[in-house]
Automatic annotation (TrEMBL):
The keyword Hydrolase does not apply. GO terms for molecular function: ABC-type transporter activity. It is a multi-pass membrane protein. It is found in: Cell membrane. The chain crosses the membrane at residues 220-242, 263-292, 312-339, 404-426. GO terms for cellular component: plasma membrane. Residues 57-423 form the ABC-2 type transporter transmembrane domain. This is ABC transporter permease. It comes from Dolosigranulum pigrum. Its main location: membrane. The keyword Cell membrane applies. PANTHER family: MEMBRANE COMPONENT OF ABC TRANSPORTER YHHJ-RELATED (PTHR30294), MULTIDRUG ABC TRANSPORTER PERMEASE YBHS-RELATED (PTHR30294:SF29). Keywords: Cell membrane, Membrane, Transmembrane, Transmembrane helix. It holds the Pfam family ABC2_membrane_3.
Length: 456
């Protein structure tokens, strides 16, 4: 039985392909539209802050303060150096030719002796001292083979021991003469013991002995920077959102830009400000390093460091940089949600204070609790505390570099989770206005979020 071939139409397949292409184009356009809106929000926030004097005061203030402190320190050091070059003058009053011979060539970095023949009596030396022509005078009397002396001065206590040594040498020479001992033999008897003083440094083959010192210094600086940056920029984003809500601008913005686009746009804008802030400090740091690295004292310091030490500190530096970024992602996203709970700009400080205390607690634990303590060890695995505590444990060698890198991964994962949780609460609370308090606003936002989930 023969069957004729039925014509198969291609039109349904063509329509399906066209619909698929249209869907892909629409999806791509939608994504681009969302990205464009996010970038607009980020750009507006970035430019508004960059154009403000407050931002540049924040950026340049620490630099000016550091420059002033270093300038004052340099001026004081120069003043002390120049002061050391000016020696005080003292007079020696004596009738002993032996004493005159010794003190004719006596000089220390702090004092010099005027010509012993200048003041032939104690009264003349006292008058010169009272008129501040000299800083002190030494009265020496030779009684047989014994020296009797009195030193009158104003603020030259450190010179008394040196003068005593010189007078002891004179007395020894007198007694050597009385005992008919040749000066060479007397010098031989009083010859100082040859004591070799050698500072024992850790072995250069063991850079780990140096690593904790430098690494702990790096972590202290890093934690202070993280605390300062996070606290400042958390305040920025809370202030921004609270002001928009208080002036009812948020309602207008949400009519054209979704809460999600607002949330991520503000995060991107803040990250842009942080990036600019960091780049400025890095560039200035490189300029300062280029100057310091040419100084002899720096080159001597680097030459004394054992090989491999900078490699160890470099790995810790990368870990701290990644913790720096993860801390911002966590705390900025939470601060955006907290800012959405504020009804007016004045509530900004109220909602951010719990977050500030949270940061302060982690900073205090890291500074004052021993790195080997159970508190620090357990708290370092709590993601909000990890950026501040784990680097300190790695620096103190109570945690390995592997644990530090694992902590970085865990902290970034937690930061992503926190971002999306904060986004959900932000979407629910951004239009909540409750004058009864922040806690009631949070309860209302949670109820709205639950209602939205049930509706979906």
């Amino acid at each position: 039985m023969m069957f004729s071939k039925l014509p198969i139409s291609r039109e349904p397949f063509i329509n399906l392909v066209n619909k698929h292409r249209h869907w892909k184009k629409s999806l791509k356009k939608g994504r681009l539209r969302v990205m464009n809106k996010m970038m607009i929000v980020a750009k507006n926030l970035f430019m508004k802050r960059v154009k403000s004097w407050g931002y540049w005061g924040l950026v340049l203030g620490p630099i000016v303060f550091l420059a002033v402190v270093m300038g004052v320190g340099y001026y004081v050091a120069q003043s002390e150096d120049s002061g050391d070059e000016v020696s005080e003058q003292i007079a020696v009053v004596t009738e002993s030719q032996t004493v005159v011979d010794v003190f004719s060539q006596y000089e220390t970095p702090s004092i010099s002796v005027v010509d012993p023949s200048t003041y032939d009596s104690e009264e003349a030396a006292r008058e010169a001292f009272n008129q501040e022509e000299i800083a002190g005078y030494l009265v020496v009397q030779e009684q047989g083979d014994t020296i009797q002396s009195t030193f009158y001065h104003d603020g030259l206590e450190q010179e008394a021991a040196r003068l005593e040594d010189a007078l002891t040498q004179v007395q020894m020479n007198l007694r050597a003469q009385a005992l008919d001992i040749a000066p060479e033999e007397a010098m031989h008897l009083s010859e100082a013991v040859n004591l070799v003083v050698q500072e024992v440094m850790p072995s250069e083959d063991n850079p780990d002995s140096f690593a904790p010192i430098i690494s702990q210094g790096l972590t202290i600086i890093s934690n202070s920077v993280i605390f300062f940056f996070v606290l400042v920029y958390v305040g920025f984003i809370v202030e921004e959102i609270a002001r928009e809500k208080g002036s009812r601008v948020m309602e207008i913005l949400l009519s054209s830009v979704s809460a999600t686009e607002q949330f991520f746009g503000k995060l991107l804008g803040m990250l842009g400000l942080i990036f600019l802030h960091t780049v400025i400090y890095v560039v200035l740091g490189m300029v300062g390093y280029a100057y310091i690295s040419r100084q002899a004292i720096y080159q001597e310091f680097i030459a004394e460091l054992p090989a491999g030490l900078l490699t160890i500190s470099g790995q810790l530096g990368w870990i701290m940089a990644l913790y720096f970024l993860s801390a911002f992602l966590m705390y900025l996203s939470v601060s955006a949600f907290l800012g959405s709970l504020a009804t007016k700009a004045e509530d900004g400080q109220k909602v951010v204070s719990p977050l500030s205390m949270f940061l302060l607690v982690s900073l205090y634990i890291g500074y004052f609790a021993p790195a080997e303590s159970a508190l620090v060890q357990y708290a370092s695995y709590f993601p909000p505390f990890t950026p501040l505590l784990m680097p300190m444990r790695v620096a103190a060698e109570s945690a390995s570099l592997t644990e530090g890198w694992l902590g970085v991964g865990w902290t970034f994962l937690f930061a992503i989770i926190i971002i999306f949780i904060s986004l959900k609460f932000y979407q629910a609370s951004v239009l909540v206005y409750d004058d009864t308090g922040v806690l009631n606003a949070f309860k209302q936002a949670r109820s709205l979020r639950k209602s939205n989930q049930d509706a979906q």
